């Protein structure tokens, strides 16, 4: 009985470490631009957060199919991020504030996507727009 408890306690932090390592590994590989990526990849679409209020400075954006990175500079003291969803894609960027830049990378195909802030309540408050991919 005593041994079992010891194992449970020892295993818990190990799981956390493994999960953290796996997460970091996948995000760093997704961020690098390898030569195997299709032509037209590496597009960066800038969608800054407005100076105040729950909105981005644009409500529409366009991109070509392939790997895209949305980046959003946030001048506010309120934390925001840039995220994308639609057509099988659901990726969330890092939360930033005070001039930080949030980025999110996704592989998209022609169609319509939503870019938004994933902080609870912010999308509903107006932090969203339409990304059209051709
Ligand atoms: Cu937000």
Structure description:
By secondary structure, the chain is an alpha/beta fold. It folds into 2 domains: 1-32; 43-133, Cupredoxins -  blue copper proteins (Immunoglobulin-like). Helices cover 25% and strands 34% of the residues. It has 2 helices and 8 strands. The protein has a 5-stranded mixed sheet. Strands 1-3-6 form a 3-stranded mixed sheet, with no helix packed on it. A hairpin with a 2-residue loop joins β4 (83-86) and β5 (89-92). The chain is globular and about 35 Å long.
Key traits:
2 domains; five-stranded mixed sheet; alpha/beta; binds copper (II) ion; 134 residues; globular; three-stranded mixed sheet; Immunoglobulin-like; single chain; 2 helices
User: What small molecules does the structure contain?
Assistant: copper (II) ion
Number of helices: 2
Order of helices and strands: HEEEEEEEHE
Number of strand segments: 8
- Helical amount: 25-40%
Residue ranges: pLDDT <50 for 5 or more in a row? 18-37
The oligomeric status of these chains comes to: single chain
CATH architecture descriptor text of the largest domain: Sandwich
- Classify the secondary structure makeup into a structural class: alpha/beta
Largest sheet: 5 strands, mixed
Q: What is the domain total for the residues?
A: 2
Task: Choose one word for the global shape.
Answer: globular
- Kindly provide the name of the CATH class of the largest domain: Mainly Beta
CATH superfamily of the largest domain: Cupredoxins -  blue copper proteins
